[in-house]
From TrEMBL:
Member of the two-component regulatory system NreB/NreC involved in the control of dissimilatory nitrate/nitrite reduction in response to oxygen. NreB functions as a direct oxygen sensor histidine kinase which is autophosphorylated, in the absence of oxygen, probably at the conserved histidine residue, and transfers its phosphate group probably to a conserved aspartate residue of NreC. NreB/NreC activates the expression of the nitrate (narGHJI) and nitrite (nir) reductase operons, as well as the putative nitrate transporter gene narT. It is found in: Cytoplasm; Membrane. The chain crosses the membrane at residues 12-31. Gene3D superfamilies: 1.20.5.1930, Histidine kinase-like ATPase, C-terminal domain. It comes from the Bacteria. Its EC number is 2.7.13.3. The lineage of its organism: Bacteria, Pseudomonadati, Pseudomonadota, Gammaproteobacteria, Methylococcales. InterPro entries: HAMP_dom, HATPase_C_sf, HATPase_dom, His_kinase_dom, Sensor_HK_TwoCompSys, Sig_transdc_His_kin-like_C, Sig_transdc_His_kin_sub3_dim/P. GO terms for molecular function: 4 iron, 4 sulfur cluster binding; metal ion binding; phosphorelay sensor kinase activity; protein dimerization activity. This is Oxygen sensor histidine kinase NreB. It comes from Methylomarinovum caldicuralii.
Amino acid sequence: MLARFSLKTRINLVIAAILLVITLIGSGLVIRHVRESVAGETRSALQLAREMVEASHLQGPLPDEQAAAWRAMLERLGQLRHVRLFILRDGTPLPPSPSRPPPDVPVWFARLVEPPPAILEQAIPTRQGGVLRVRLVADPADEIAEAWEETQLFLGLILFLAGGCFLAVYQVLGRAFQPVEAVLTGLVALEREAYDHRLPDFPQPEWNRIARAFNHCAEVLQQTRHDNRSLTRQLLKVEEEERRALARELHDELGQTLSGIKMLAQSIRNNPQAEAAERAAGLIAAQVDHLFALLRAMIHRLRPLMLDDLGLCAALDALTDGWRQKHAGIAIDLRCDPAVERLAAEHQIHVYRIVQEALTNAFRHARPRQIAIRLEPRQDWLRIEIRDDGAGAEPSRLQQRGYGLRGMRERAESLGGRFQVTTAPGAGFTLTILLPFEEEEAHDHPCHAGG
């Protein structure tokens, strides 16, 4: 049932129940003490009256002239608090005096603290041989009235303390749980992808730590969404640029080459002389070779076929050889552990693209003299380290270096890996990538590593 209420309401209800139980226990103890006190007082008063009557009885049979005075004394004794005295003449009981109800005392309280009835009877002989019978009846009405006044004060004090304690706890809990609504509002904002929402500072240190963690999470999500959108725009841009470049090459290179081949073939048909035909055939062969080179370059841009045919190490070896040919003055040292060939095929292309992008960044931005590439399995991870001795950069300015590093990070993290950049001005770049080493069930490619 309590599950329907909020945590604050449930805590308040539990505290109220505890205070109520404490109040009831305290009230029960007070009632018990009052009942014992009233019973003790009435017993004491009844015993005192009995001793007074017995003291008169010990004097012996009363003469007639003293009996009347003694009866008057007993009647005055009957007006004592807590005791009622009745005289029985000639064996006939007098009508008992009506018990005085406690004034302004609730009936329930009187019933709870009223002691059991206490009645004593004494027979006083007279000299004429008669018997004067005296009945003593306990009457706790006055004591109950006094006890009610004291109990009212004590119960009022208990209720005041319990109520004050509950109000104090209610106020404290209200202030303690006041940030809950702000946190819930913030979570709803995150659910709606409003990552610019921030929580304010709270006076409570615990909630303040939660607010700082929430704001940090919101900042990370906001930055991640911004990076993802930037990457998406960049990927779309790169995709369109690649399509434009392929379309231009197909149009300019392939179209013009095919047109030239067609014209040469037409010239052979129009001029079937052996010398002219031989010269045209040579030009056709040259054009076809150019087409083959163009197609190989375009296919390599789309996907390196060597990766599927010869394996990852050979593909990386060919990649670094291509960069060496373009930049003869820069040393590239590639060391690829043969165990890397056991990596799952769908992950090998990602490793290839990471190394390709790292080399592109190094030659584009770092101006290095040496580049070292290491690939080696370590337990359940594939460790990739790419280090150059280029210009380096301030770590705080890495976000401004374009989409290369960001793309490599996204690629590594999408595979469940880790990406780390170590750099400083003049100290070059060191990229450390750890990828889960998921082995291929059957993979049989030779490994070539060059230095």
